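Quick entry between incubations.
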Amino acid sequence: MKHILIIIASVLFSILFYEKSIGLNLLLFSMMTIILLAFNNSEQFKSKRIILYCITYLTTAVFVFIQDSSLSIIANVVAFFTLVGAISSDKTSIYINWINGLFSSIAGFFFRKIEGNKNKKEQLLNKDTDFLHLVKLIGIPLVFITVFVLLYKNGNPMFNDLVNKINFNFINFQWLLFTVLGYYLFSNLSQPVRIEPATSKDRSIKNDLYKTESFSEEKLKKEKQLGTTLLGLLNLLIILFIVTDIISLTTIDNSAAPAMSAQVHNGINTLIASIIIAIVIILYFFKGNLNFYAENKALKNLTYLWILLNMVLITLIVIKNQNYITSFGLTYKRIGVHVYIFLTLIGLVTTFLKVMKIKNMVFLFRINTSIAFVTLIAFSTINWDYYITTYNLNNANSYDLNYLIGLSESNAIQLKRHSLNTTLDSKSYSRIDNKYANYIKHIEHKTWQEKSFRDFNITEEEKSL
Amino acid sequence: MNLPLNLAKSSLLALVIFWTIICAKEGLDHDLFLVMLLSFIPIFLVVTIVIIGTICPIYWIAKKEHINNTQLFKTYFPYYAILAFLICAFGIIVSDFDIYLTAFFVSAFITSSQSWVWFANEKSDHETA
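Done. Structure below.
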């Protein structure tokens, strides 16, 4: 039954993806994957965590169908690895799920060959379905028969005529190979494997820090002194930097794009360096017994203050970036700056939590990767090309039309409408017209597997603008 | 470690996978037959370099630490497979899915993975002792 299901899935895999671009097919593939995983791993599917990962995976697939963007595809792939990894071993960190999921999907077949040898029962089962032997049994005679047929063809004209009459053109070998790829993938997925000892080690590591036997008051006092002096001076320095930054922010001319661009980029570089050093210093001082030292209050307060001041620094960068966006419109890089700032803020908050609640580094790594995953899923639900175009055409003081034309096809209708209602130069008009024509042509040539929600819902009026 | 046997089996496997992928796309032409036979030499060289350069060192180092082949496979193969997959996928994408390079990278990934399995299935010295 299991093999029949995998064979059906692999044939469907070829029907969905062979020589096709991404669209409805990825949503159907996601559904198939969940069915196959649930069928083979029914025990794991009783866990609420697995159900949640299934819903997340399915949601990302729905958004691939709706948005048809690269980001939504990336989110879907990451959610896929997360789900497969979680099935291989529940209650592990999300990054272990990713590694397990990736490994299960690409090489689970090879790994199970050795895993399967563990007990004789499985060995017997393997003997029943020894695919390598089957491949040899079919492959080697096939190679030799082909060689000899080619040789005999030259030796006998009658045999040559007979062979020439044989026509295998009705078989698409590439399609068959693609189906084999599908079989390999689904066979890997049917029974996800886990990487040891990484998985068991991750499960055994808790998030809390504990006092070690090397606790020495004298040593900790010196460490505290060093930390207090260093963080005290760094706090003074960052205050000075923030004051000068606020002054420069109020004096900058918003109409000069190069000046604003330089200011935002310099600010970001400062922020990157500052936050990384801040986190490294905090992690260094709070890596061990200093967390349990009774007189660490001053150091802790200075740490909290420094985290807070870094947040102020972040706010200033947000203001600069937002001014830049209001003046010159949205671009992926400017959105990227906002995303980076958001993730940095999260990093600071989790560092604050680590110090306050006496957590270890693994806690930081676990929580930050989980938040990065949620952020990716959340951002994949937005059609950024459409949003950037709408914002720039309606809200920005000035924008780069060439940049909008260079975005994906999803804004073709918006731009075409804009070109009909606004006076543009002939070059821009022609480029928009080409983009729109290509988009309509592309939709008409798409098969049902490749279509997105937008393609299914395009109106006749939109097709004949 | 039976390296010669592993190299022979791996080269044959790589040859079959490489030409199966190419023939599926370009069709089987009997003029290609001689090229197929001759291609065994470069394929054997590449397979030898990959196996001796990337798989064997792990086995040689681990041998000193008295880890048996199965343990070694379970510990190191996953990371090897992930890295090999990423490199091969990158190569295929960068080549813009050129059929010859795709066939090369696919056969490289499958052959190196299967080579690990063959090594792991051999009985290590202290297992036989």
